Amino acid sequence: MQTTPIIWAMLAAGAVVSLAVIVRTKWLQTHTLPKCVLLSVVLHAVVAAVCSCLGGSSPASWGQHESGRMTMLVVTAEEQTDDGTLADTAEPPPGLPADEQAIPDEGAEPPQIVTDADVPAVEAVVSEPVASPDAIAPPLDHVPLLELAGTEDEQESPESVESEQSVVANVDADSDAAASDTLMTDAPPAPLVAGAAAASRAVPAVYADRVAGRRAAAAAARGGSQETERAVQAALSWLAAAQSSDGRWNAARHGGGVERSLQGHHRQGAGAKSDHGVTGLALLAFLGAGNTHQEGAHSETVARGLRFLTERQRADGSLAGDAEFFAALYCHGMAAIAIAECCAMTGDESLRPPLEKAVRYSLSMQSPATGGWRYAAGDKGDTSQLGWQVMLLASARQAGLTGLEPAESRAAAFLQSVSSGRAGGLAAYRPGERPSVAMTAEALASRLFLGMSPDHPSVAEAVDLLARNHPTSRSPNAYAWYYSTLASFHAGGPQWEAWNRQLQAALLPMQRRESSGFDGSWDPDPVWGGHGGRVYATAMAAMTLEVYYRHLPMHRQATPIAGVNGPPQR
Asked: Are 343 and 351 within 8 A, CB to CB?
């Protein structure tokens, strides 16, 4: 304990007491002005000495004993939610790469979706111990893709938020050189050409069923039908027609950023500048049905979209485009997943540099303390952001990138922090908040992509909640349906068959079938669809209906489809 500040504080207190005594005596009644000047000089000298002692020459690190650069704390306005907790007044909607005003706080989802009766033990953040992160994440057995700047002692505390520019500027150049076999290069990628010859290679098994000749068999074996396939193809036709000449899908032109008042929040037109995000979602819909820039009926559409994203990638690797601060990481994640999937499906080396830069940027944005992602580097994180980043890591792994295990382990630890329920299967938007259907579904999908076994008890607990909140056309929610379908499909079992029937009964009749220019699209849903617009709604619905072949199901990855032998060759 330092004694100097205490001594100076005592001296200051003594000076104040002395001044009070002087004022109450007759001393100031003669030669008042000179005496007041003298007292003023003495008092200011004492105050300056005390401040110098307590504050030091580095007040920003007062009491911290830190070294290194300063951090910047970004503070947003907060308001009280219905349940008495504080929530950001501008919370972006999960699933739509819009600004914070367009992302919902899933922890405060409407009570009709998650009720106390439906979810036992909700009040306790974790009512019983759940699986450790080591049981979820794969072992750390690869060479790191990169080393984040700073040692463990230099990393920020959970309460600090570091600016994006600081992280990127402080990436260790020596560690970059040490991992040069997997890191990006500064050379610009070769131009993407539609229909260009693909190198002979095996498509990763996880994506193999997207290829023509396997797609129909996979759909038939896993719950799809001719009706679901017609719906997907009609959606892709509408998306192709809606693409702008420069390769983007313009969110605002197709209804993105429409103001709504949801749960008492006004979002101020968020979503209108999320072109890179909805472009990523549209490309994912095409890739999910086997279209790449090298083959497929929509190869030219995919090539234009990829060119738009890669040519506008920032030097730091971000693919956020013009999105606002609160939308940026959503847009980046969605666009980066599209590049990763296409790189994995085709082996096109021209996509590797932008992919590596994008992954490096995502890793720099992860909180080293909590393992989560949110809006700025170092943010504590939320489950909605995490789902897209975990999917990016999984897709990048399929494209051949290594060294992702530390980030995956941190992501698994964050999922632990938002878990609740008897087996830890329920999940909230942020730690300490109520679990919700959408966040439980996204967390389950993330855990499965991180390596959790579909037989884990927490999986059964999560899908039980989803089964009790099945899709209905009376309350459509593209985001919740997408993640719930993805999680149910990969979990497998009888619950998947029931969910699939209910999904098709609700989603298929909602597709527009007319000649008004909307044929094949879906209207934006009343939850968050207005912020993403028609492109968001249609791409999310198409990916939901591609679930039968978009990924090899995790609950039986070793089981081949009847009549299909081995992965196809490129």
From this structure: yes
Structural domain containing residue 551: 133-145+193-556
**Rounded average pLDDT over 307-333:** 94
pTM of the model: 0.68
539 token code pair: 């791409």
Using CA atoms, how far apart are residues 395 and 393, in angstroms rounded to an integer?
Answer: 5
Which residues lie closer than 8 Å to 559 by C-beta, 6 or more apart? none
Residue 386 domain-assigned? yes
Tokens standing for 499? 């969910």
Res. 68: pLDDT tops 70: no
Grouping H, G, I as helix, E, B as strand and the rest as coil, residue 265 is strand
pLDDT digits (tens, 9 = 90+) for 262-305: 554 444 445 678 899 999 999 999 999 999 999 999 999 999 99
153 pLDDT band (50/70/90 cuts)?
very low
1 inside domain: no
Q: Assess if residue 456 is contained within a domain.
A: yes
Residues in CB range of 13: below 8 A, 6 or more apart:
none
Q: Please, are residues 365 and 164 in contact by the beta-carbon 8 Å criterion?
A: yes
Instruction: Compute the residue count for the chain.
Output: 570
Q: How far apart are CA 435 and CA 421, in angstroms?
A: 9
Contacts of residue 287, defined as CB under 8 A and 6 or more positions apart, other chains included, come to 210, 302, 338, 341, 342, 345
Residue 394 domain-assigned (yes or no): yes
Out of 35-49, 273-287, 424-438, 550-564, least confident range: 550-564
- Candidates 476, 472, 478, 475; CA nearest to 535 is 478
Q: What are phi and psi of 428, to 5 degrees?
A: -110, 170
Provide the CATH number for the domain around residue 502.
1.50.10.20
Q: Is the model more confident about 495 or about 514?
A: 495
The dihedrals phi and psi of 29, each to the nearest 5 degrees, come to -80, -15
Residues paired with residue 568 on neighbouring β-strands, in sequence order: none
The widest CA-to-CA distance across the chain, in whole angstroms, is 111
Q: Is the pLDDT of residue 502 over 70?
A: yes
Residue-wise burial string across 93-104, b where 16 or more C-beta atoms lie within 10 A, e elsewhere: bbbbbbbbbbbb
Report the distance separating Cα 83 and Cα 399, nearest Å.
44
Tally of structural domains, the chain = 1
What kind and span of H or E run contains 63? none
Q: How many CB atoms lie within 10 A of CB 225?
A: 15
pLDDT digits (tens, 9 = 90+) for 465-498: 999 999 998 888 999 999 999 999 999 989 999 9
Q: d(Cα 402, Cα 182) in Å, to the nearest integer?
A: 7
Tokens of 400: 């051949």
